[in-house]
């Protein structure tokens, strides 16, 4: 196990965030030790805004055995494929590409989502084409000093949310995928990729706001004329209104001020998780 004092900007896709004590846990024993004091769990740092002041809690990153696992090869072309256990620290894009190589369908809707597997489960990551809940078979949690396996139906998975017990850490998952021809998988991935073409390439934390029923947060922001609006080096993306991007050297306070203005003006619900104190 490694313990370091680091700026969390190094670990977030928005590239903002202040100092914290970062614990990289590699074994179940490490996890027991690291959770003996107040903690937060950091996946791939997407969908997350961290204060410039950092956080006082330990920040846990899953490495070692928690960042290992693969989908395994399908045994039959005519039956669903149940994967081996996959560590929650594995990156979701890695699994999406592995599934395509193996001829396994089900993960195509998650193409382009820069999350860890554990983070994807906690927020029920997805797109308009589908979400990770669609392919979950079982989830292992570490909670109150013990590991337990739950059926996905026990996690309260909804639109970009879950109801995991307080302090619970996703440690491993099993997925149920479907063998399919390579051409079918490629076509589905191309469709998802085409739908993401308008998304910005600059540093961001992903979609900032949840889509209201029957509408799109991006369209609401666009209609209100906020595309390109800035606070410091934080900007509403000109390409897609539901992305706030770091144009270079942005502070979390810049991002927060921009988020709050959009919320106050448009009544949108924030999709990101927020860590730490803000002015």
Automatic annotation (TrEMBL):
EC number(s) stated in the UniProt entry for this protein: 1.3.1.98
HAMAP family associated with the record: MurB
Family classification: Belongs to the MurB family.
Catalytic reaction list: UDP-N-acetyl-alpha-D-muramate + NADP(+) = UDP-N-acetyl-3-O-(1-carboxyvinyl)-alpha-D-glucosamine + NADPH + H(+)
MF-aspect GO terms: FAD binding; UDP-N-acetylmuramate dehydrogenase activity
Gene Ontology terms: biological process: cell division; cell wall organization; peptidoglycan biosynthetic process; regulation of cell shape
Pathway: Cell wall biogenesis; peptidoglycan biosynthesis
Primary role: Cell wall formation.
Residues of the FAD-binding PCMH-type domain: 15-180
Major place of residence: cytoplasm
Keyword Acetylation in annotation: no
Listed name of the protein: UDP-N-acetylenolpyruvoylglucosamine reductase
PROSITE patterns named among the record's database cross-references: FAD_PCMH
Keyword vocabulary terms for this entry: Cell cycle, Cell division, Cell shape, Cell wall biogenesis/degradation, Cytoplasm, FAD, Flavoprotein, NADP, Oxidoreductase, Peptidoglycan synthesis
Cofactor: FAD
Active site: 160, 207, 273
An example Gene Ontology CC term for this record: cytosol
UniProt subcellular location: Cytoplasm
Stored InterPro entries: FAD-bd_PCMH, FAD-bd_PCMH-like_sf, FAD-bd_PCMH_sub1, FAD-bd_PCMH_sub2, MurB, MurB_C, MurB_C_sf, Oxid_FAD_bind_N
Domain of life: Bacteria
